[in-house]
Design brief:
It is globular and about 70 Å long. A six-stranded mixed beta sheet has the order 1-2-3-4-6-9, sandwiched between helices. A three-stranded mixed beta sheet has the order 5-7-8. It has eleven helices and nine strands. By secondary structure, it is of the alpha/beta class.
């Protein structure tokens, strides 16, 4: 939940809007739909509020959760084959809106104790269990919960000027939104401890070296590279790619015998897919 303080004030917390596209904010403004369907089976889920560097207040969390649910439904129906998670403006997400958080602390809001479990955890799970590959495209800052959202993706493409900053300890909180799960698996326990206990903005090239990022791309080329990677994944064997995501998640918490049995079940299921048959035929045709 922790984050860098937004650059400009955000309104205090208010009751969240309904989970629907283009829902109305408490101040009467309309928020854009956070799910954008592109071509070739690629969908974008957009983190909004560029005026406060993508800081996540209650309405934005609801909008993001709704967009991810609809993306997951579309992926399960075969309509979406790759999901791209992006920010708007000059930042990915600075994480929790600390002005909202401070207002709720001052009000002694009892619901504050359940924000992570009720709002952030479902977002992290949807990203982890998405029935399609997920690519995070990071410009500017990805901090706190915003960094955790990027870490939950399969691939992370960073602009050369981007920074990833766990930031939780800097505001006196432990990690959330899956950061304590993803970080050790990406960079190892020792480096994860350092990044969480001594948070700092990690430059894009160092993120690649540590394993926090897949690629660092010149800022001007980021959109084109993201589109290229998304097209590549969307054109791939979706059933096999989704099963690969499940295999990796299972192996992280199970022993070798259990993992081997799980792999066998996954392979048996995917082997009956039309994609597998087509891929085998294409391979054999090239060998002839």
């Amino acid at each position: 939940m922790a984050a860098a303080d937004p650059a400009r004030p955000a309104p205090p917390d208010s009751p969240a809007p309904p989970d629907s596209p283009g829902a109305t904010d408490p101040d009467g403004a309309r928020r854009a739909d956070r799910l954008e369907h592109g071509t070739g089976g690629v969908a974008r889920v957009v983190i909004g509020r560029p005026e406060v560097r993508g800081a996540l207040d209650a309405p934005e969390r609801r909008a993001l959760l709704d967009a991810l649910r609809r993306a997951a439904d579309a992926a399960a129906a075969g309509e979406v084959r790759c999901v791209v998670l992006v920010g708007t403006g000059d930042a990915f997400s600075s994480g929790q809106d600390l002005r909202e958080h401070a207002a709720r602390l001052d009000a002694d809001d009892p619901a504050l104790a359940r924000v992570v479990e009720d709002e952030y955890a479902p977002i992290a799970l949807l990203l982890a269990e998405m029935p399609a590959p997920v690519v995070a495209v990071v410009r500017g800052t990805a901090a706190g919960a915003g960094a955790a959202l990027a870490l939950a993706a399969d691939l992370r493409l960073l602009a050369a000027s981007a920074r990833v900053d766990t930031g939780f300890a800097r505001v006196g909180l432990p990690p959330d939104t899956g950061a304590s799960w993803w970080l050790p698996r990406l960079v190892g326990e020792g480096r994860a401890r350092d990044l969480l206990l001594r948070p700092r903005p990690v430059p894009a090239d160092e993120c690649v070296a540590l394993g926090l990022a897949t690629e660092a791309v010149p800022d001007a080329d980021l959109d084109a590279r993201a589109a290229e990677v998304a097209r590549q994944l969307a054109a791939g064997p979706t059933a096999a790619l989704v099963a690969t995501r499940r295999a990796l998640a299972f192996s992280a918490t199970h022993d070798l015998p259990s993992t081997l049995a799980h792999e066998g079940a996954l392979v048996a299921g995917v082997a009956r897919s039309p994609e597998h048959r087509a891929a085998v035929e294409a391979f054999l045709t090239r060998r002839r």
